[in-house]
Design goal:
Length: 487
């Protein structure tokens, strides 16, 4: 799979030709500006404390930016054979290029707008916005149902996950026909929803909602997986120098926004920039924890979270992410046969999910150890503060009242979140009753229908999910093109 990563990456932080990386792809990748972030004593003190806590500074006196950079691994995506098992402190890669966000959206827009020298369209790609896919159309003229197109409703904010949705607006029905095949890329929630609305999924669930069963595939909408994440936040009596002028868009004018528009300043990079990989006592091989940071208050996702910054700009957040979670108990089930309804999504965290072989307790133990590691970084910051000029960070969330193992575990189970939903239409072998797709992304029991998105993984790959989705999509593109040429 490394060749797919090299194909899509446009790396701008390593020397061109570095093994295992690409430099001409569509996804711009950079790292946080060490000069911008670590030049601030508050950031630097946390980086030094993290390195000491990890044991990277044994026998060394670290008092300067140069000392710390000598310990910092610049490439978390390196091609070393022991990368996934190594504990280290890294500079965090960012999907940015020339200080701007890089994403599949821009790739799709650029592809749709590409033209030949005579101004004719280079690719036959049409993008239909404000259009909700409601059902896959099939012809039943062979041994398997064959996908022939997609029905849709046209109109703004038709899906009820959108807070602007209005029940009085019905949408304009329409359809498109497929010459060769239909490819679904609706994500971990909506791909299983669309399959079920089209009659592909667990027969009992479909029958209960009056949806005619086209293919009984019990695995559709099961196996929902995610990471566990939690935050520990410290506060310093000394504000950040690099963001001292920033209002974080809570009021205008914002001097930092004006700097950004000139390609300069704090907003051109991330509020974090460091990542620590570690292995818990219950890890099975590879590292199973990654800690990363923000020079802001961040306690999870909720409406308005991005503008929530209590007090002054003197907070530092360590986020603990549990990778390779063992829970396979999440589900995406239909609430109704109405395609505008949001499905019933239940991750079944911890003991509500997979409990075989103490899976829930092992994940909780790993999170407990990661939490204590982050808490130790704050303690270390206070200890090493005697040799630096910064005011140390003191933990304020969850704070000293959460102290015993029982209290910490209660905090973790009640406050954890995730944002890497996946695995609800998994690829699997022919003898796997819960496999939804074969190895060529084809929906089992059908012809002319594939799924390509985060739902295809049997298990969550790696530490983060986005790059894995891009890589599997590049592989799917090869598979689809190969099949088209052979037809």
């Amino acid at each position: 799979m490394r060749r797919y990563f090299e194909r899509l990456e446009r790396n701008e932080y390593l020397p061109e030709g570095t093994a295992g990386h690409g430099f001409d792809g569509w996804l711009g990748v950079s790292t946080a500006s060490t000069a911008t972030l670590l030049g601030d004593q508050n950031y630097l003190s946390q980086g030094i404390a993290a390195a000491i806590t990890l044991g990277k500074a044994a026998g060394k006196l670290i008092t300067s930016l140069g000392d710390f950079l000598a310990l910092l691994n610049p490439d978390i995506n390196n091609d070393s054979t022991n990368r996934d098992s190594a504990t280290d402190i890294y500079s965090m890669p960012l999907a940015t290029y020339d200080n701007k966000r890089s994403s599949p959206r821009q790739f799709v827009v650029d592809t749709a707008g590409a033209a030949h020298p005579n101004s004719s369209r280079k690719y036959h790609l049409d993008i239909r916005t404000n259009t909700l896919a409601t059902r896959i159309l099939f012809a039943d003229d062979g041994t398997k149902p064959r996908a022939t197109g997609v029905e849709f409703l046209e109109g703004q904010s038709l899906y009820r996950a959108d807070p602007r949705s209005n029940l009085t607006i019905a949408g304009i029905p329409g359809s498109v026909n497929a010459i060769r095949e239909v490819i679904i890329s609706a994500g971990a929630f909506n791909s299983p929803q669309l399959l079920k609305l089209s009659g592909i999924g667990p027969a009992e669930e479909l029958n209960n909602l009056g949806i005619p069963v086209l293919v009984d595939l019990p695995g559709v909408g099961t196996n929902l997986q995610d990471r566990y994440e939690i935050s520990i936040i410290g506060e310093s009596t000394q504000a950040y120098n690099i963001s001292r002028q920033c209002t974080l868009l809570q009021s205008l004018p914002d001097p930092c926004l004006e700097q950004y528009e000139q390609g300069q300043g704090f907003y051109t990079t991330t509020a974090g920039g460091l990542a620590v990989t570690m292995r818990s006592s219950v890890a099975e091989g590879d590292v199973d924890l990654i800690l990363f940071n923000s020079g802001l208050w961040f306690s999870g996702y909720f409406p308005g979270f991005s503008l929530y910054q209590p007090g002054n700009n003197s907070f530092f957040t360590w986020q603990v992410l549990k990778a390779h979670t063992r829970n396979r108990g999440g589900t995406v089930r239909l609430r109704s046969a109405d395609p505008r309804d949001v499905p019933d999504i239940n991750f079944n965290y911890f003991d509500a999910g997979t409990v075989d072989d103490d899976a829930d307790q092992k994940d909780l133990q790993a999170m407990y150890e990661g939490f204590n590691f982050a808490r130790e970084i704050f303690r270390q910051d206070q200890a090493e503060n005697t040799t630096t000029t910064t005011a140390p960070f003191v933990e304020v969330f969850p704070g000293p009242d959460v102290n015993t193992k029982e209290q910490i575990e209660q905090f973790i189970t009640s406050q954890s979140w995730g944002h890497h939903a996946s695995c609800t239409c998994p690829i699997g072998t022919d003898d796997d009753p819960n496999a939804v797709l074969d190895s060529r992304f084809r929906v089992r029991g059908t012809d002319g229908l594939r799924v390509v998105d985060a739902s295809v993984f049997p298990e969550i790959p790696g530490l983060f999910l986005a790059t894995a989705i891009y890589m599997i999509s590049e592989k799917a593109a090869d598979v689809i093109i190969e099949a088209a040429r052979a037809a």
